Predict the 3D structure of the following.
Amino acid sequence: MIGETLGHYRIHEQIGAGGMGVVYRATDTQLGRDVALKVLPDGFARDSDRLARFKREAHLLASLNHPGIATIYGLEESGEVRAIAMELVDGPTLADRLKGGPIPLEDALPIAGRIAEALEAAHEKGIIHRDLKPANVKVTPDGKVKVLDFGLAKALVESSGASNITGSPTISELASRSGVILGTAAYMSPEQARGKPLDRRTDVWSFGCLLYEMLTGRISFGGDTVSDTIARILEREPNWNALPEKTPQGVRNVLRRCLQKDPQRRLHDMADARLEIEEAVASPLSSVPEAGPSVAGLRAMWRNSALLWISMIIGIAGISFGIWALMRTPPSAHGPLMRFSITLPVNEQLGGLDFPSLALSPTGTHVAYVASRGSMSRLFLHRMDNLQDEPISGTERALGPFFSPDGLWLGFFADGKLMKTSIGGGAPTVLCDAPIGFGAVWGVDNTITFAPTGGSGLMQVSAAGGAPREITKLNEEKGEFSHRWPDLLPGGKAILFTVGATGSWDDAQIVAQSLETGERHVLITGGTFPHYLSTGHLAYARGGSLMAVPFDITSQKVTGSAVVVIPKIWESIDGAVQFSLSPQGHIVFMSGGPAGREHKLVWVDRNKSVEPLAAPMRDYSEPRLSPDGRRLAVTITENSENVWIYDIPTGSFTQLTFEGHNSMPVWTRDGARIAFASNKAGALNLLWKQADGIGADERLATSSQSQAPYSWSPGSHSLVFVEQSPTTGRDIWMLSTDGDLKSRAILQSPSNETGPALSPDGRWLAYVSDDSGRNEVYVVPLGSASATQARRQVSTDGGTEPLWSPEGNEIFYRVGSRMMISRTRTVPDFQAGPPQILFEGTYEKGRESRPAYDVSADGRRFLMVRTNTSEAAPVAFELVLEWFEELRRHLPK
């Protein structure tokens, strides 16, 4: 057919042939693109049943839209000739590449990962390949991997016919119904070779054959004849010793699970294989064969647990006579620790990391976690029995998940409420108000002990809901400003929690308090996030490490020295630590942490152009430009938080604050002074200092509640700030700097009001409120008698971090990764235009609606803190089974 035209396709050359037809390079004369034109076998058009079935299958195959799958463009008919137009993929096939021998491990695993990803996408659409082999995989010159002929084997089946494998290694005249063999012999699954019905597990087998051949250069079940090959598939195992010595244990386990002859024992989902391969690619040195069980093997471990227990019982009965002797001898060394890395899907990132984001169920069968898909965060449930991750409905903007003692319910904080939901599904139930929520624990008596805010004592409420009661009180004489992160001791008569009084959370106290008498014992000075371990130890965090110390529960005293048990664990600046334990001694945790992260300061203009500042990479937050735009006040976190001044023209830094933790700088309107929040005298309170660094810090307010500065009035006579109330959450106040430094509440309600920004003329206040159930940006006239009635809503789909343009005719705010703009008019009355997206990107986000950006003096550019992509939100966490056994080996009793 070379030189002929079929429909609007001009055929140039033959580029392939097989049982499914002849493939030509052709040009689509209508769209001017080259395509692969597969002309189907002779006689195809004469079988009306097969032709109708093929059209139905082709329409389904055309729905596959994945970068790793060759796209079907359309069908073409001319007389008795039928053809299918497909994406033309240049480059050698995997079969061509394997002619040169095995593929190096560092090249083979990424290729296998892309193939697994393509299969996973097709399986989600209900489409099975049925003929996966090296000849149906192309690797383009630029390294892209494309799987060809997806599902065509089924589409080309005859309506009748007997088994016929004599055409192997190509497919010819084959069918997929029961009793008929379909597939190239060397890559057929056992059920395919027997002519049985097929599902996605047949592709899993073929993938295992393909991966084995890539690593070894050998066909896994090769034989001299088709019959020999089929016999080996049904009766023999591959030569596992042929695998390269450096093959990661996780990859070895994937191969063994893929090539299980019994489909019930075979890996059921390509996602499991993909995750294990991606982990091996990302961490080649940490996934050597001695690393223990793999993520892909976790399902098998759980599925076989019943058989394991039965075997153990029989074994115990058989050796009961020897128990006495065994008890008199030292125990033998334990086996390798079982560690698993649980990687989130590619479209998810872990979120809510200022609060606990992980919760392991008491049964050890589920992990709840906070993650975001796009701009919206919610709770997800990871089920260990099938390695599925499912979003939990109704948990948008949720924080701090925790399980009920029976593992059937999940508690969490969201939208200023303490809530619960069943892990089996259904709408969440509101239990009581909790403006923020700094930790909770569900007791066996069906009560929940929780911290409703970051500036309160602990409260307790029935798990059925109702009015909470106070169970701890802040000792303001000792400078206490927060009780948070509670954990119950066994029996539920006493509770552990963290007391914030001065310095950072590494300076906090960990205490135990009786719920009956109120008697309190200080256990640790210098730590946060305590948890009791049934091994007789107390776990807590300090300096980004998880510590453990012997603990006598009867006397409620620490009885030994602390030891580091996880050297690098995620600890937030608010004292939350990302780990959770089950009573059996399993642990789930997140490595690393925000401390020491490096960011870049960049300008982003309205045309989305990005220009870095000359400032070096450091852990920046809350940048604020001076009124003249020549200097920058910014919080830098190193060993502690402090405010620094960056001179933009000269590129030099000067440290402004020194003692304690100091953050959230705000320039006065004349640029002479900087207000900031500091905890060096107890709770975070308002201070200010001359911007040139001369002179001492001066206190603007004294309160037992946390305060944060936001915006100055014209003339810098008043400072708008946010104060944390134990009863009403975050409220907006105004402090007069003239005279006696008096403060008055501007916006105070049961909802959270935060992010206040005064307009340039001082007449209007933009702020954020969550009284609608989510954060939205509003504007209210300053001094309005009824703020709720007078306010105007600016955002329409959520919003935080509002700032005004220097002219006051625009309001900027953020929704997820998007920078939004609303054009406004303030005379004679306020009006806000419809929000529009200015730009989008991976930039640091502000906490509690504190803007993590600033606007240039001309209003044309935005100073952003760009996230280092290598330090972006994490996408994986670790699970360790029988972790208590490891503790017992290393910790003093």
